[in-house]
Design brief:
Length: 212
């Protein structure tokens, strides 16, 4: 009889110890303040500074969106400054060369200075980051054997048609003829986009990047 009492007492003590440990652990967790970690709670909502030259990016001053800054852009800039020309929101952004939020004589001068310059804009990862898009880099390198067939693939139209809309494609060449390489690929995609709707063209214009 006494043996049964000892066993029951031992089991009760073990259960008590388990419950006490769980309660103590739970109290410890509740008592601790939440730690956001070294980068804060919005760590994944931001991106580090990272820029690449992009032949496909719109250049400030290209108000008429013809992929070059010409005398016509300078004229449009001056007319916008004098109030003779109403610009769309996107045109205003391109005309505001010094990015101060207004179109003034400094923007007109800045546009004139950029006329016929072979200047490429930069794609800014930190500014463009929204946490909802994917980035794929297609790298053309003579040191990587499989990069050549990937670069010259004739499945470009299928790539766009089958691709999710939230994907950015970066075509990067590390050859000595890098600029020529990316311009050639850009021409292929420009031809494909010409057969698509205006809305789709605008979308892929912002999601295809050609990095010399």
């Amino acid at each position: 009889m006494s043996q049964k009492i000892v066993i029951k007492t031992s089991l009760s003590l073990i259960k008590f110890q388990k419950h006490f440990f769980l309660l103590s652990f739970a109290s410890f967790i509740v008592a601790q303040d939440f730690s956001p970690g070294p980068y804060g709670t919005n760590y994944y909502d931001t991106a580090g500074p990272f820029q690449v030259p992009d032949v496909n990016a719109q250049v400030l001053g290209d108000i008429n969106y013809d992929e070059s800054i010409t005398v016509e852009d300078a004229v449009w800039s001056n007319r916008a400054f004098t109030g003779e020309l109403d610009l769309t929101e996107e045109q205003f952004m391109m005309a505001d060369v010094n990015q101060d939020g207004v179109i003034d004589e400094l923007d007109v001068i800045g546009t004139v200075n950029r006329v016929y310059q072979s200047e490429y804009s930069y794609w800014d990862f930190e500014e463009e980051w929204n946490g909802e898009e994917t980035y794929i880099f297609i790298h053309y390198s003579p040191e990587v054997s499989y990069s050549t067939p990937l670069w010259i693939s004739n499945e470009r139209e299928a790539l766009l048609n089958n691709s999710p809309m939230n994907v950015h494609y970066f075509f990067v060449s590390s050859r000595e003829s890098a600029l020529e390489d990316v311009l050639t690929v850009k021409e292929f995609y420009d031809e494909i986009l010409d057969g698509m709707s205006d809305e789709i063209q605008v979308h892929w214009k912002k999601h295809l990047h050609f990095v010399p």
